[in-house]
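CORE FACILITY INTAKE
Project code: CF-77B
Contact: R.S. (postdoc)
Sample description: multi-component assembly, two entities in total
Requested service: structural model of the whole complex
Turnaround: standard
Below are the sequence entries exactly as provided by the requester. Do not edit them.
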Amino acid sequence: MKSELLGTDEILLPSGFRAAGIHAGIKKREARDMALLVSDTPAVVAGVFTTNQVNAAPVKWCRARLPSREARAVIVNSGNANACTGAAGLADARRMAQVTAESLEVSEETVFVCSTGHIGARLPMDIVEPGIRETVKRLSRDGGRAAAQAIMTTDIRVKHWTVKIKVDGKPVIVSGIAKGAGMIEPNMATMLAFLMTDAVVDADALQKALAEAVNQSFNRITVDGDQSTNDTVLLFANGQAGHTSALDAQHPAWADFVAALNEVSLQLALKIVEDGEGANKRVTILVDGADNDEEADKAARAIANSFLVKTSWAGVYPNWGRVMDAIGYSKARVDEDKVDIWYDAHQATRNGLATETPLATLKSVIEQQAFTIRVNLNLGAGRAVVYTCEITEEYVHINVT
Amino acid sequence: MKSELLGTDEILLPSGFRAAGIHAGIKKREARDMALLVSDTPAVVAGVFTTNQVNAAPVKWCRARLPSREARAVIVNSGNANACTGAAGLADARRMAQVTAESLEVSEETVFVCSTGHIGARLPMDIVEPGIRETVKRLSRDGGRAAAQAIMTTDIRVKHWTVKIKVDGKPVIVSGIAKGAGMIEPNMATMLAFLMTDAVVDADALQKALAEAVNQSFNRITVDGDQSTNDTVLLFANGQAGHTSALDAQHPAWADFVAALNEVSLQLALKIVEDGEGANKRVTILVDGADNDEEADKAARAIANSFLVKTSWAGVYPNWGRVMDAIGYSKARVDEDKVDIWYDAHQATRNGLATETPLATLKSVIEQQAFTIRVNLNLGAGRAVVYTCEITEEYVHINVT
């Protein structure tokens, strides 16, 4: 793949997309809280949503609009999740689509809706409706950064990523924005990501590619093990790059497109982990040697979701005993006399027993902003990776209100 | 049951039991770190252990000694878990039994061994061995409190409970000591409890009664969702109360004995939750209306183990949306439009939507040191209860090292 990483401060929207982000007043503090992404022409859209049985009104709205080849926009608010709001909440979500559609002069069926924030309260529609109209007025090719800011809740950093490829000799862009940062669990927990491309893509192929990209990125991160009611990843492909043949699995450029999509998804997912509430470290958990991939995944998630493991990272304390404990209570088969654990290149245990590696060496690994804990169960060929972060006192402080 | 609660500062050992607790030097700080409980005559013993696949040497030692009608003692150290220590650790555990047995002039097979503390380091046997001999010298009928102190790790409060009943007209005592307080998860996570009775009890009946008592007490508490490598509950019955017929399910006093055992187990379990690391509140999670008891249990544990729910309690923030979120991602079937949630007697949601109950009222519930969150899923007759505590910044502070 000939991908080109763009400057991190710039958000280059694919051809035919515009964006905006404003402060409408849903958040009490002076921060952007409404975002709009628009495709000037109908776009094929793919989506992946939370698996939580309790899911928000906008999630229900979006699910019912898929599949679609006519998507035009997604309107997003932060500060209120519009979850556990019943029929009234569904009406509010639909009203958001209607007002957006009216202002854009498109059909309401082509407008997607997302919300993130506090659960259980009605949306302040007296603020949301004029907010939508204002957002439409502010749409521009340079609005990507404002939109990325407007979807943030407890996020500290703006998250976006862009990759350029060529299809049939034409430049194609795949870009995306995302928000975390708490209530993040493997299966798509409080996170929103909006991906855009100007590629021409077959609708079925697009949905498959997105599902696979999400599985290898957003579904492999965990901050606190809590799954949200509102998780949504949407991918819009408007075909404005102008290459002649639609991309699908048979197309010679398909692998490049998939690689670009995977890269954008993974980079956004890693940015969410790096911006985990109160977190400063990105930790990669790599488990191999499990009976199979599924068991490796269970062991990796047990480590990544153990608060005792996560707090030990915060304390720069290489307590591999807590890692052993976590895999021991995971549902993966473990033989404690076979377990090897590495901190980056330094082996902490061999056959389940401490090595001679000095504590100071292991400490120096955990002191880094990014490191890898690798566990070999030495039972089979199963393998899994999960990305996570440490848990600090600040995490608790952020979440006590 | 005619039970009599004894003064909370007194630990009344059943007839024929002696105890001791000393500072041997395993802990760097000046705190007791070795405990010994002894029955002057052979006792029937029952045991329940961690389900963690990684389990400590003393757990392996104890498991291999059960069932036994000849138990004489349990020697315990805190400050070092003797876990992930391989064959050398097993030899150390056995050596602890040997030294204890020699000093008591009994067989090593009759001595049980428990350890709790840091995982992965060898026991300092040069400290442990003289420590054992010193502990034997200090044995007394008044040693219960010192023993209860000596098994503590991050515990702040000594945990013990005693119930008196009558069997065949003779006074019988059931008493116990326990330690928590982190790495506590439903299925017996880092906790030790030692129960004693002078009742005459059939061995099989004793094991069944203990398993059931543990299931309704120690297995229903959770602090942080982590399961330890060392959890052990042992129950010794030495028959010194002198009633004529052995207790079993056919005995007229069986129900009284079981009730006493259940009470001691539950009270100790609740004390562990109340002394959860950094915790100040005891929260009872009661789920009913699930499809079945197992599903109710899943929903209750999802709530009790959600860090977002637990931190909201720490912040005295009645965020029922986080409760909805947790049951939604639990493996229990949930229909969000049917969920009723109460904070003590105050209903927060009806059919999944906010009630008119003022936030201030819900807040006043969470301000209490003990309260109940009740969730009715309104689907079936399944029911479960779990006891837990809040998560504070102090919890993280305690666990960063």
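Facility notes:
- DSSP finds eleven helices and 15 strands in chain A.
- Chain A touches chain B through 64 residues (CB under 8 Å).
Invoice: internal transfer
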